[in-house]
Write a structure and sequence with these properties.
The protein is of the alpha+beta class. 35% of the residues lie in helices and 28% in strands. A hairpin with a 5-residue loop joins strand 5 and strand 6. Helix 2 packs across helix 3. About 9% of the residues have low confidence.
């Protein structure tokens, strides 16, 4: 038993993480990649994530093609012309939301990370109306459609 443990300890640095590549998805920071789709979890409500995702898409200059709230309370956004972004925002637990994103058919990691960066930057952004009052979600949705 000790010999087997010694052999494993000597061989493990040589093969790295390739010993069990099928166990889980690739994790880059806090973004998980699974079959060309990026997943990122936030300690935020889905409505806040939805607002932030729409702001990020508008900042990057992509047109929003489809924008809907599904029956189960998830948000679904399709944006972009040549590079198509499909974003699903769903509630995992109270105050925990997930943003799933696929860019193009096979997934494009740099574009997805760029959008996630903009989403992160917009999480604490508050939009104000002409009178200086914070806008509600309904006003934001109507303003940008």
């Amino acid at each position: 038993m000790k010999k087997l443990l010694l052999v494993l300890m000597l061989c493990l640095p040589l093969i790295g993480c390739q010993i069990v590549p099928f166990v889980g998805p690739i994790v880059t920071g806090v973004i998980m990649w699974h079959e060309g789709e990026a997943h990122k979890f936030y300690y935020e409500e889905p409505s806040t994530l939805y607002r932030s995702a729409k702001l990020a898409i508008n900042e990057l200059g992509y047109p929003i093609i489809k924008d809907e709230i599904q029956r189960n309370g998830n948000y679904y956004i399709v944006a972009g012309d040549d590079d198509k972004f499909k974003i699903i925002i769903r509630k995992i637990k109270p105050h925990i939301g997930e943003v799933k994103m696929r860019v193009n058919f096979m997934g494009n990691k740099p574009y997805a990370e760029l959008v996630y960066k903009h989403i992160d930057n917009n999480l604490n952004t508050i939009d104000f109306d002409d009178q200086g009052h914070p806008t509600k979600m309904r006003k934001f949705i109507q303003k940008n459609q």
